[in-house]
């Protein structure tokens, strides 16, 4: 990669949003569900942005937007210096590839491993001679730690970790610049998780890949991330470097999430904050801070106004990130 490319973000999202129309019928209007609202971030080559949050916060929708599987309903997306528009994305498709949580579901079980990895080349590089394609597949298999004899085997003959290696090889064969990793180790045994995470870290260093790493598991995020974006109900509520967010979480929701994660140093004090109440329906997001009803620091202002994501490098969407020290009254488990 040239120096200029190394200094250009591989992906930049500005106010990216995705609404869905849900329900509605002959006698009622559909409702609008904001699955992702106003997400802004960028990822440089060789860096990992982790997107974290509980189920339903919009992580997978964000993954589908960045991989151009779905079009945004608002905001802009720029991939490797090119603005993505509905009419002009197909030439950028190979720049961004995705690895899903469940390699069993994402691989075609009727095909042999060699063909599974080769298929994107057959579709996207029809002029590439077969011999060159096979050589490329074999090279990628070696890169992800697979043996040459695996070429002719079927996915069902492999363990979950090996199948995830096949999925990673398939994602890499078109030489993308960005990998969207959607919970890539969540379906694997703990002992295998670290092998796959270390493989991803190694591949990133060698190929200067940018990663958008989607995970609900903060121990995994602590292992792989450079930067972190915490999402709640489709909105980013905190962004910053991994060090900043883990050492000094500013948003109460991030504090609660982190308090539920095993500490790097188990001797450190650990008090688990127990969130009150339920996640509001995404169809009825409160007008002020979307976290207000579950927040132990809540003030009148929080229910009336929506806080912006504020700060320098470490931002939080909270009116009182450190102003009101109510940590002592946080509900603990
Ligand atoms: N195609 C769709 N039509 C309507 N609503 C959708 C659609 N896709 C997602 N949603 C809604 O958007 C919100 C965000 O969903 P999304 O799957 O992105 O969350 P998530 O954080 O990835 O959750 P999970 O970890 O459970 O997959 C949810 O309320 C979901 O029901």
The CATH H-level superfamily is P-loop containing nucleotide triphosphate hydrolases
Q: What percent of residues adopt helix (DSSP H or I)? A: 25-40%
Gap from first CA to last CA: 49 Å
Count of discrete alpha- or pi-helical segments spanning 4 or more residues: 11
- Overall radius of gyration: 21 Å
CATH topology (level 3) name: Rossmann fold
For the largest beta-sheet, the strand count, sense and barrel status come to: 7 strands, mixed
Bound molecules: adenosine-5'-triphosphate
Specify the structural class: alpha/beta
Order of adjacent strands in the largest pleated sheet:
6-7-8-3-9-10-11
Oligomer: single chain
CATH class equals Alpha Beta
Average per-residue pLDDT, rounded, comes to 90
Q: Uncertain runs with pLDDT below 50, 5 residues or more? A: none
Got a strand count? Answer: 11
Number of domains: 1
Structure description:
It is a peripheral membrane protein. Residues 11-258 form the ABC transporter domain. GO terms for molecular function: ATP binding; ATP hydrolysis activity. InterPro entries: AAA+_ATPase (IPR003593), ABC_transp_ATP-bind (IPR050319), ABC_transporter-like_ATP-bd (IPR003439), ABC_transporter-like_CS (IPR017871), Oligopep_ABC_C (IPR013563), P-loop_NTPase (IPR027417). Keywords: ATP-binding, Nucleotide-binding, Transport. By secondary structure, the protein is an alpha/beta fold. The protein has a single domain (3-329), classed as P-loop containing nucleotide triphosphate hydrolases (Rossmann fold). 30% of the residues lie in helices and 20% in strands. The chain is built from eleven helices and eleven strands. The protein has helices at residues 3-6, 59-66, 103-106, 113-124, 130-143, 160-172, 190-207, 218-224, 242-247, 252-259, 300-304; strands at 11-22, 31-43, 48-52, 74-79, 82-83, 96-99, 178-182, 210-215, 227-232, 235-241, 315-316. A hairpin with an 8-residue loop joins strand 1 (11-22) and strand 2. The longest helix has 18 residues, at 190-207. The chain starts with a helix and ends in a 17-residue tail after the last strand. It binds adenosine-5'-triphosphate.
């Amino acid at each position: 990669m040239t120096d200029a490319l190394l200094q250009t973000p591989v992906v930049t999202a500005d106010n990216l949003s995705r609404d869905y129309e849900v329900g509605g019928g002959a006698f009622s209007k559909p409702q609008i569900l904001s699955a992702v609202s106003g997400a802004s971030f960028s990822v440089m080559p060789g860096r990992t942005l982790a997107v974290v949050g509980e189920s339903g916060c919009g992580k997978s929708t964000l993954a589908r937007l960045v991989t151009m599987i779905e079009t945004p309903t608002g905001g802009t997306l720029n991939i490797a210096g090119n603005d993505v528009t509905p009419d002009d994305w197909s030439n950028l498709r190979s720049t961004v590839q995705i690895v899903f949580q469940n390699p069993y579901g994402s691989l075609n079980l009727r095909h042999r491993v060699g063909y599974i990895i080769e298929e994107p080349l057959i579709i996207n590089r029809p002029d590439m001679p077969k011999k060159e394609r096979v050589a490329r597949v074999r090279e990628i298999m070696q890169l992800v730690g697979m043996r040459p004899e695996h070429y002719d085997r079927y996915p069902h003959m492999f363990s979950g970790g090996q199948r995830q290696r096949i999925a990673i090889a398939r994602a890499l064969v078109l030489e993308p610049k960005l990998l969207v990793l959607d919970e890539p180790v969540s379906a694997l045994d703990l002992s295998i998780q670290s092998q796959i995470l270390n493989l991803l870290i190694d591949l990133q260093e060698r190929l200067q890949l940018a990663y958008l790493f989607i995970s609900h598991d903060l121990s995994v995020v602590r292992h792989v991330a450079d930067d972190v974006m915490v999402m709640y109900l489709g909105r980013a509520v905190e962004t910053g470097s991994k060090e900043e967010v883990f050492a000094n979480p500013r948003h109460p929701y991030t504090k609660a999430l982190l308090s539920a994660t095993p500490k790097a140093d188990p001797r450190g004090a650990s008090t688990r904050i127990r969130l009150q109440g339920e996640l509001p329906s995404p169809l009825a997001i409160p007008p002020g801070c979307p976290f207000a009803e579950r927040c132990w620091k809540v003030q009148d202002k929080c229910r009336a106004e929506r806080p912006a994501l504020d700060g320098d490098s470490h931002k939080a969407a909270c009116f009182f990130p450190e102003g009101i020290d109510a940590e002592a009254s946080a509900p603990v488990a």
